[in-house]
Amino acid sequence: MTTREPQEIARVAAATGAKKTHRTWDKVLVSAFLAGAYIAFGGLVAIAVSSGLDPDTWGTLPTLFTGAVFTLGLVLVLIAGSDLATGNMALVPLGAMRGKLGVGDVAKNLSLVLLGNLLGALLVAYFLAVQTGVIGSSGAGGNAGLTYERLSGIAEGKALGESAWQTFLRAVGCNWLVCLAVWMSLAAKDVAGKILAIFFPIMAFVAMGFDHVVANMFFLPAAIFAGVPDVGWGETGLNWLLAGAGNLVGAVVFVSTSYWYLFLRDQPEEPAPAEVPSAERA
């Protein structure tokens, strides 16, 4: 397995972040749409495999199962190649810190990517989760009823069970880990290495109940579409705002700025590696 050293990871990350702003808006939007759908697929399979596991019997193991399979989402994003806002929150600002682009470029990219992620997540939530019957309705029997109850628990916990401060802090921790997964995936030059780098940080943030704004673009609308009581668009919008702000802080402060300071701040600009593989678009 060939790997990059931390200093080289930082240079590749900065070059990748800069390249993300050099595409036409339509390509960014389509790429972001795919990433939103991929994260939603991860959320949907996480609900499916953890439904029906009674905490009185299983304790906290359902959260471990949820986190383990949710990693599918970021694996699809990084290996297939697409734009996820939470990963861009680290890579694109890092490109700006290296003087490769401006603050306006960062804001434009993140806004467009968030929009695309939302559209992709909503499509999966409505058509592939609820309309297919994978997520059932209140009172439904069998697997559909179990997935409804599992989704209800997740959505109510995020929309109603956390204070604003808790949501923000959980989002900071979430994207610190997510961006570390993206960062470490840049170290590997083969698919297996990238998947291994992704698995543990993503499993950890889900198992701890942290808040990922794009994942919540799936969980909360899916709950609304499925008719989960007391979860509405007002609570959903507030969650997205707080989670997005916390995710941005986690990415910029604890990943971009930290590694810029350690590896790039005092270093002259060096030629980037000959290519930045498509699998490293996060």
Automatic annotation (TrEMBL):
One of its GO terms (cellular component) is plasma membrane. Keywords: Membrane, Transmembrane, Transmembrane helix, Transport. One of its GO terms (molecular function) is formate transmembrane transporter activity. InterPro entries: Aquaporin-like (IPR023271), For/NO2_transpt (IPR000292), For/NO2_transpt_CS (IPR024002). It is a multi-pass membrane protein. The chain crosses the membrane at residues 28-49, 61-85, 106-129, 168-188, 195-220, 240-262. It is found in: Membrane. Pfam families: Form_Nir_trans. Gene3D superfamilies: Glycerol uptake facilitator protein. Belongs to the FNT transporter (TC 1.A.16) family. This is Formate/nitrite transporter.
